[in-house]
Every structure is written in C-alpha cells, then in structure tokens.
Write a structure and sequence with these properties.
single chain; mainly alpha; Substrate Binding Domain Of Dnak, Chain:A, Domain 2; two-stranded antiparallel ribbon; BAR_dom; AH/BAR_dom_sf; SH3-domain GRB2-like endophilin B2a; Endophilin_SH3RF
Amino acid sequence: MDFNVKKLASDAGVFFTRAVQFTGEKFGQVEKTELDAHFENLLSRADSTKNWTEKIFRQTEVLLQPNPIDHTGARIEEFLYEKLDRTVPSRPNNGELLGHYMQDAAKDFGPGTPYGSTLIKVGDCERRLGGAQREFLQTSAISFLAPLRNFLEGDWRTISKERRLLENRRLDLDSSKARLKKAKLAESKAACEGEAVPDFQETRPRNYVLSASASALWSEEVDKAAHELRVAQTEFDRQAEVTRLLLEGISSTHVNHLRCLHEFVEAQTAYYKQCYLHMQDLQKELGSSNGDVFPNAFAGNPGLSMASSGSSPQGNATLPQDAASAVETDTLKIEEVQAPATGTRKAKVLYDYDAADTSELSLLADEVSTLAHIPFFVHASDSFSQVCPCKARICGLIAGSCTV
C-alpha cells in the first residue's frame, strides 16, 4: 500500500513538473528543446499521411456502402458474430433483392406474358449484377480497406504513442535544464554571500553559518540536477531514435498503399466490365424479342412529321427500317416541293393527329410548322376551328385556309 502511495505521489510530482514546463513554454517564459529539421519533416509527413489515409478510407466506405444507416442492424449483427468467433451469414444485397422481386412478380403475372418474360430476363440480370457487386465489395474490403484500417488502427496508434512519450521525455529534459540552471544561480548567490565578512554585532549572527551551509547544500543540489539532466538527455535521445525509426517507416507504408490502390483499381475495372457485359447481354435479349413483344409498335404511325418542331421532344423520334423505307418510296420528297410565289408560311397545330397512312403527316398540338404549296394541301384560314372544305385532313388542323 505504501509503495502504491509513493508511486502515485511521484507520478503526481512528475505530472505537475511537466505541466509547469508546458505552461511556461506556451507563455514563452522558459526554453524549449527544438527538434532538428529532418525530424520535423518526418512528423509533418506522418500527420499528412494519417489525415489523408483516414479521409480516403472513410470515403471509400461511403462509396462501397452509400447508406450505412440502412445497414445499422446488419453491422450490429456482424459485430456480435465477430466477437463470438462465428461466421457472418450471407445476406442478399440490393441488386439481388431486386432480381428476386422481379422474378417473383413474373411468376405472379405469368411468365408467358410479354411483361412477365421481360421481368424474368431483367431480374436474372439484376441478380448477376448483385453477385458481381458482392464480389467487388469483398475484394475491395480485403485488398484496399483492410490495409488502410490496419495502418490507422495499428501502425498509427504505435506512432502516436511513441510521439506522446517523446514529448514527455522532452518536457522532462527541459525541466531538468531549468532546474540545473536555477541551482547554479542559487549556488553562485550563496557563494557570494558566504565570502562576505560576518557582522558579529548583528542581532542574528547565525546568518553567516546558515549561508555557509546553504552554499554546500546548493552545491549538492547542482550535482543532483546535473545527474538528472544526464539521465533525461539519455532517455530523450533513445526515445527520439525509436520515434524516428517509426516515422521513417511511413515510406514503406506509402509503397504498401500504392500496391493496394492498384489492386483496388483492377477490382473496380473488372466489376464495371462485368456489369457492362451483363447489360449488353440483357440488351441483346430484349432487342431480339422486341418484335414479339411489340409487333405493331409503329404500324399505326409509319410516318413521323416532316415538319421541324422547336417545342416538342418527340421530334427526335426515329422510324424502324421497314417503315422508313416505305416513307421514302410512298411519300413526297422534300426536294420536289416548290415554295409558292408569296413564299413559305408558318402555322400552329391545334391538336394532335396520327397519320392514317403514308400519304398523311402526323402532327402534335402546339407544333409550329413551316408550310409550302403542296397539291391538295394548301393553307390559311381566318378561323382556327373551320374544317377545310376540300376534306383534306391536314387543313383542318392548321391555322389556314384551303385554296383548292
């Protein structure tokens, strides 16, 4: 019990001495041992490595698992299994769940229906994408995240511990220097007082004897402080060497992280390539079955509006190859259209119209079209609601009148 109390008192005294030294350094009242420039560069490089490694590690986790809150229960379960030294059960990821849902929906809707058969194909592709993602996450966790975590939780903790110990040794060294300096000043002061001739008429002549004994005590104190300084200097040098070796190991850490980064890039490249191949296969399967699923997709609309549209996004629609060829052979060529003597005119479509055959045009409401003189299709009327007397379907849709 006495030993513990003494140790506690000693530790408290050391802590107080370090606190006094640290406070004095902050206020600029005491001297501070400065580290060499190379050592300071090593410290700065280590701090930078730790900060950026931590940021890269956290952001990579966010990239691989965008919504960690949604997986809080799963993480707690993994933690419990890890503490119990048991294997974490495999669970489907989001892609695999989506694939399962699509295939279950296809069974409910009927796998023979166009929608059901497509759901089966897309669901199978989503399951394969989910499997590829699972492999990518596992590879990335092993080859990239694990080394970064090991550095932050292992090597860096060791470096931080040794740096704190080095700082304590430095405070002890500077405190010993200050103590020795004060002891030497007191010794010289006591020696000066001891050399003075004593005044025996003084009411307290014993001051001379006390001064002589104080000089001897201060000499002993100087020797003790010098011994403590030598011990503190030795411990500081030894700790500085240990810390220096650890800091120089940051270079090997960079080499290791570089290798892990290459492996991460290779895993990411393989993952995206695999996803691209899966999507290409799915696109080919869906493209080959488009004719069966939508056999008359363009039957009622073989010709799209040849008028330029500036307000409707449907103006960029394309035609199937057979429908496009029919338009080319059966419809009037634009180069054959001659502008009227009065020039071209613009008109606004009142409502949507789908062409019944290749001799007509499909129009959209509010579409602004440039009109030219075409046989049986001539323009302009003062009344937007009036239907053209020539019975041409196009004239009743355009703000114009028929001159036939």
